[in-house]
Every structure is written in structure tokens, then in C-alpha cells.
Glutamate-1-semialdehyde 2,1-aminomutase
Amino acid sequence: MTTSAQLFERACRRIPGGVNSPVRAFKGMDRSPVFMERAQGAYLFDVEGKRYIDYVGSWGPMITGHADPDVLGAVRERLDDGLSFGTPTAIETDMADLICEMIPSMDMVRMVNSGTEATMSAVRLARGYTGRDKIVKFEGNYHGHTDSLLVKAGSGAVTHGEPSSPGVPASLAEHTITLSYNDPDAVEACFEEIGDQIACIIVEPVAGNMNCIPPQPDFLETLRRVCDRHESVLIFDEVMTGFRVAMGGAQAHYGVTPDLTCLGKIVGGGMPVGAFGGRRSIMENISPLGPIYQAGTLAGNPLAMAAGIALLNKVREPGFHDALSQRAATLCEGLQTRADAAGIDMITQQAGGMFGIFFTGQSRVDNFAQATACDGDAFRRFFSAMLDQGIYLAPSAFEAGFMSSAHAPEDIQATLDAAETVFASMNQA
Ligand code: PMP
């Protein structure tokens, strides 16, 4: 049998860090990554045959569990027709109709191949539309690895200690203004000073890349207000929250309507897909209708559209998000009870089907400074011991956890039983 350790050693010879996306490397977790062979429902199975209850869900897309038969069936059905044509196909409009129906603020939508492309294109569109260069983002929010947005970013960028990456020209980064999340006063002050130079605000309406941090009351509303006042474009990056926090995304859950929305993850059902869209008057400026350029050889790929449509049709079922949210709440409440009983300083935060586990004595975590002040060593020990117990959590204290509808009550109970054992062991250490 080939072990994960052997595969990792081999991978490291040809792939930087042995991985094709940095957080997969388990950096800072004092162990090497587990190589997976297959996945089914709530479970991952590694190359050594060990089963894990998975709370990463491929970082979000697998909201109905892995290898969903409806999603696989939709792909299988189209497979023999060919993989890509580079021409328009009817299924792209089926997808566009579905997205715009589920997210009413989106009049028009363009498909791309990743979340990174979605945010990159939305920011370019906002700049082209307003004729302004400056953009506002929030510390610890991650919007993919496009240059303008890789400034004080979250996710792997912070895990790997490089929230502002070398390679991003200072002359570009200087147009990115970074403010503290959940601080409406800072936003007001910034717009008071230079609002008329700001093309857009881009925000994760629930932050999921510095663990899970929901917006405080009036934060998103303030963003809407200042953008209206200064004719700036409000972009919600719903790559993570879209179709997860609620059917219509965080904008439906919190009742704040952006001008543009970025999507990814669930919209592709596990295939490489992103999308951006919003108000018709803005979207009509994209080429070939307008002068702002954006394109993609494989964009709107028919197999990817088939997978995404099949998954979106499942999450549209009445009651889907209530049930998902309830499962996440059961997990969070169960973890809290057990941590309290063991005398471990830990809190959880949740928004719909996403959640976060923070090792802190604080009662809430609202921003990047508070997230990075949590006990990283306690997280590392918790993560590693849970992995040994067959529970697969994100290998970083700066990532959200993802619940799926395939997590049965017994899976959640098994997770809580494992956590009880782990909390007890952490106390002894
Ligand atoms: N925006 C958000 C909010 C994300 O969480 C991510 C990825 N986790 C991205 C953008 C980038 O998406 P991708 O990795 O598909 O490029």
C-alpha cells in the first residue's frame, strides 16, 4: 500500500510544496497532508483506507455531500456529447436563468472558471463602469489571488504568513484600501475623505477566510449606504456564502442588496466554475456589449454547467437551508457544551451552513485582529487530534467549516464524541 507520506514526498519533487493550492499542505499543523482516494456523502476515504467525516466539503461546493448521484448523473448524461465546443450552448442560458431566479439582484450573469476570475472581473467592471481606480476591501477577507485583491488577504495567504504577496506591484496595491471588517465608522470616514475616487467596495458578506465571522448589525447596511451616496459599486463576494448561507445567499439572509455578486464553489457542483453578475446597467458594459474586456476559453463549459444546475436544483428544495443550518447549529452547540465541560476556552460562530471554531476566551470574534489573536497552538492540537479520530476539519484556524445535507445525526454525534475525547486530551497536555 502506498501511504500519504510516500505520495507527499513524491509530489514535493515536482509540485511546489506538494500541492496545487497552499492550504492543502497542512503548513503549521506539524504533519503532512492526507491524500484522499475517493469520497462519498459526508465521508472522505484516504489512500490507506481510513474514513473521515468531512467538514471541508472541497472548501464549500459539496453541500449535498460528495459524489451526489444527481450531480454525477447530470454529468454522465452529457459526457458522450463532448467536453467543450467553444460555441454558445443552450445549457449556459439554463444556468443564467437559474442563477438570476435564485438571486434576484442579478439581472445578468457571466460564467467564468473560478472564484478568482469572478472577483477579478467584477472589480475590473466596477473600475471601468465608474472610471475610478480605488477599491475598498476588508482585512482578512479573501477574494482569490488576483493582484488587486491580494492585499491584507485571508485564507491561505494569512495561514502562510503573506497576507500581502510579493509580486503584487506597489503601484497597483496602492489603489486597494483595506479597512477593518465590521467597522462601519471606518467605512464612513474613508468615504467621507475620498468616496468620489472609490470604484467599489468588495466584501465577503459573511467572512469565511479568517474563520467564520458574520457581519454585525449595520455593517452591510453601511456599505450599501455609502456606495449609494458616492455612486460606488457594492460587490458581494458570495463565492463561499452563495447558496450556502441561504438559498439567495447572504444578501437574502441579511436583506442587503449589492450591485454585483460573485459566485463560485456550489454553482459548479464541484467542477471549476465561477460567475459574476448583477445590475443590467452595469453588466451591459462587458464585452461584446460594452468596452470592458472579459473572456474565457472554457467558460460556461457544458459539463460544468450540468453539474452546477443539478446541484442548484437540489439546494432550491424548500426547507433545505433550514435543515442545513440546524445541523450546523447542533454541531456548534454540542462542541460548545463539551468545551465548556472540559474547561477549554473555545467559541463557535455560525451563519447557515458555515461555521467557525475559535480557541479564545472572548465571547465573540468580529474582525481579523481578533481572529489572529486566538490560540493557534490549541487549534493545531485540536485539528491534529480530531484528524486522528477520523474527523477532517480545515487544516487552518483561518478557514470556515462547511456542513452538508449528507451529514446524518449519527455523523454529528460521532464528531461530538471525538471532540469530547480530544478536549480531554488537550487538558492533559
Ligand atoms: N472569494 C471567496 C470568498 C473565496 O472563499 C474564494 C476561495 N476560497 C475565492 C473568492 C477564490 O475562489 P477560487 O479559489 O475558486 O479561485
